[in-house]
Amino acid sequence: MPVRLFFVYVLPFVLLSFNFAEGATVQGADNTEVSVQNPKRLVVINSSATETLFALGLGDRIVGTDAGSTYPAVAEKLPKVGHPYRPSAEGIISLKPDLVIATEDSLPPATAQQIRSAKIPVLVLEASDKSGVDGYKRRVRMIAKAFDIEAKAEKEIQRFEEGLKKINSSATEGKSAKVFFLYAHGAASGRIYGTQTGPHYLIEAAGAHNAAESVEGVKDFTSEAMVKMQPDAILVLKRVSKNLGGTEGVLKLQGISLTPAGKNKRVIEIDDSVRWIGPRFPEFAQELNTALAK
């Protein structure tokens, strides 16, 4: 074949094949570049990351998750590789994934290094409560880049934003309410979630105010601090409420009776995943908005 014809007809296809084989290169939140070629076996660490993969149509590629990834229902049946914040490197490697996806707060650096030492790429996303809605968009787009599904990502982001717009337009009575998110393992221990946390962004999206907005991040709970905040409503995870004995058990916690929320017995239960921001965030914000408007 003449050289000129080779460059005109053959070389473009050679280059196209080379680019396809090269796959995608994505820089993770840990500043580590990850090169992948259409991964088919995924292990995902972090429940909101798992939900996001399903929302993007990639759920059928997941072969394992952390123990906390239980939604959608099919995710609960997948092999588990340990605690949401302390996954087993050996368990992950045994599933022979061609990509591990985890948030920066769910995968210790040493564990990530152990997995990479087994020649398995690890894509680290930003923490699932980082930067609120904007953080969720960045995580969606990072995942999409790795799988070359940018169009699906933009559709998911559009769905997410439209859900939030509906809430904002209907937030009336709940707008001025001060909501205190209570996270507790028992009557003697708990945590306060201030600004820059998942519950803070949820409360704001619902049209209310975080009673703990004077606190940055997550701090140890004290009844004195909560009483000073004078919340109108107490927001608790469903499993926390169950562990405390339901609404009556929550109301018995020290100091709650001295707040408007305690006096009016206003305790609102919410899904266990709201400490992170995932695809169902608009749904949970609407749920809270509706509860506050009653």
What's the structural blueprint in terms of helices and strands?
Blueprint: H1 3-22, E1 24-27, E2 33-36, E3 42-45, H2 47-55, E4 62-65, H3 73-76, H4 89-94, E5 99-103, H5 109-117, E6 122-125, H6 132-147, H7 150-170, E7 178-186, E8 189-193, H8 198-205, E9 209-210, E10 218-220, H9 223-229, E11 233-237, H10 238-244, H11 246-251, H12 260-263, E12 267-270, H13 281-293
Parallel strand pairs: 3-4, 3-5, 5-6, 7-9, 7-11, 11-12
Antiparallel strand pairs: 1-2, 7-8, 8-10
How would you describe the overall organization of this protein?
Keywords: Signal. Residues 41-294 form the Fe/B12 periplasmic-binding domain. The chain has 294 residues and is of the alpha/beta class. α7 packs parallel to α13 (281-293). The chain has two domains: 22-157, Rossmann fold; 171-293, Nitrogenase molybdenum iron protein domain (Rossmann fold). Helices cover 44% and strands 18% of the residues. The strands form three sheets. Strands 7, 8, 9, 10, 11 and 12 form a six-stranded mixed sheet that branches. Strands 4-3-5-6 form a four-stranded parallel sheet. It has helices at 3-22, 47-55, 73-76, 89-94, 109-117, 132-147, 150-170, 198-205, 223-229, 238-244, 246-251, 260-263, 281-293; strands at residues 24-27, 33-36, 42-45, 62-65, 99-103, 122-125, 178-186, 189-193, 209-210, 218-220, 233-237, 267-270. α5 (109-117) links the parallel β5 and β6. The chain is globular, with a radius of gyration of 23 Å. The protein contains 13 helices and twelve strands.
